[in-house]
Specification:
The protein is mainly α and about 300 residues long. The chain has one domain. The protein contains 15 helices and no strands. Helix 4 crosses helix 5, helix 5 crosses helix 6 and helix 6 packs antiparallel against helix 7.
Amino acid sequence: MAMKGETNLLPDNVSAPSESLQKFTQKPNRVFAWLSWLLIACHYLTWLKFLPGSFWLDECGTAWIAQGSLSEVPQRTLLLLHAPLFGAIATVAAAIGGINEVALRLPSWIAVGISIYVFSRVADELLEPDTARISLAIFTVWPIVSYSAADARPYSFALAALCGCYLFFLRALRSDQNREYAGFCLCAATLVHLHLLFVYVMVIPIAFLLVFNLPSAGLHRKKWLLSAISVLILLSPLAMHYRVMFTRGSSYSFSPIPAWSSLQSMLLPARPMLFFLISTVLCAGFILRIKLNFSQRD
């Protein structure tokens, strides 16, 4: 029976949930949290068996960069159009463990572990605890994340920096502390220094600020403008890499540069978008029907 001031949404022939069940569903479940972390750890450890496999084509480029010294990293990464920071990490890893698959892939495995932890902090910022654990489990078993853990390429490092970038971005929006802005700038610059193409990811926070925050009153626009200038200054050493990318980028590919129509068909494929629209309409109709049934019952 519903108490005064509450609405009972259950039919008359269905009893209310017990007190223990209400505590289980309303409070964060420690058993579920520990179990989810255990499953994530087991899945993370299984990636170790893929480290000794043979290099594939792009990983051979990483091995070639790692054969030189740290002073040769800028020139070697410019020739292959790789990010210099990851080239330095690969060179240090090769100096410690030699030029082999395990030595060059182990840093990527460690970087994925860091990205899992940082993503859990991002999920805690946005979601309630149990939902955050579910999202973390989905992130861990995501094919791209699993693949990058055993790949001597910069994707796992860029993923960790990307998660850190969004974590500090959320904290800066909420707390407006200078250290959060500094963390965002550092992670954003590190992200691009690890993978040149990840500069396009910066479109997301910029679009969010322009649409939702900058037009509102009382927002500290000067801090975000200073943050943008700081990131550009930190990215200035990569100017030569981007110059080569835009002037001679087609020479690094087996196929010509795709047209904008190809990019549109890749980002917005017709059949999945149609399925998404139909699913959205059906879900909206289902939710609306439930609300109408409840309103009629009241």
